[in-house]
Amino acid sequence: MDDSGAPAAPDSRLDGVVWDVVVVGAGPAGSSAAHAAAVQGRRVLLLDKAEHPRYKTCGGGIIGPSRDSLPPDFKLPLQDRVHAVTFAYDGRYTRTHRSERMLFGLVNRDEFDLRLVQAAEQAGAVLLTGVTVTGVEQRGGDQRTVRVTAADGRVFEARAVVGADGSASRIGRHVGVSFDQIDLGLEAEIPVPPEVAADWQGRVHLDWGPLPGSYGWVFPKTDSASLTVGVISARGDGERTKQYLADYIRRLGLSGFTPSVESGHLTRCRAEDSPLSRGRVLVAGDAAGLLEPWTREGISYALRSGRLAGEWAVKVAEAGEAAGVRREALNYAFAIKAGLGVEMRAGKQLLAAFERRPQLFHTAVCTVPAAWRAFARTTQGHTDFARLLRENRAARKLLAMAAR
Asked: Which residues form the signal peptide (predicted)?
């Protein structure tokens, strides 16, 4: 529909096109995939059910690996630059650490995702919104294409498809993605007076929570005078997770302010043997269950896996026989497992130890300089959890102590 309410004119760019790559989902993973394929001069269609900009439940932390995976010349719409972290253990034993160098940046996801979509379009991808994908059909024989069907009956045909349609992915179901960790995140966007926003400027709050594996966060969006406050815990205890968020907001002295948005979502981590492709269809980001298991950080995983998916989707599109398609899809899976998969394995080790001994982790990061430096270096992108456990004896010792 256009602004007058009349049906929108057909887009001639879509008529009878067999696309090289169709990407389903225009979040960070999908936009990165579309950009990576489009910069190679391929015909790329990017589908999304929502119009951009749109609200997304997410703290909006941009750590080093996220920054390093953005398209060239991408300008981050930063709301704040974090130089300090206040740690707490279920509201107690508070300690603040500061860093001369920025630890990470904070964005509003509506602005960030919109700019990623625009970068993909500038690279040559065609964006089509208002499309809810309901079916995927792989066509063999002489066709060698994938047909993507929308709820309104439209059909899009491509030589390769990237599924990046979130943690409840329709494309992920087609591929057969399975999960071994599902968590519930709850979040409130709280507008605050300028003087309250100023108190939080440049500082985030992390609270190791009362439920196994849980924690809470305050991420200040100083430029828009709001605080993103959230908690996450394993799915299955929703009422206690809701109570944790309410208690957390109250302890922070923020219960007198009315949230502009209250939302929740499930995060899903892939099982280690979960597939990443099926025929000419690849999955990336949340659709593949790719996120950091301990912190549940997903933006960097989305950007990195999306870029890889876009690059390998081009190779899948160019492959002729089924054997060539299988080879390129396996190469994509290997690239993911050799990088993000190794990091996820380390994150699952850390989560298991954290669930047993959260106070030990809190004591370490608050009182052991090496632990604080490791935290800072990880957020800045100088190391990751896998390298930390492999190269840092103190980190391995902490893990061993937590396992006792």
From this structure: none
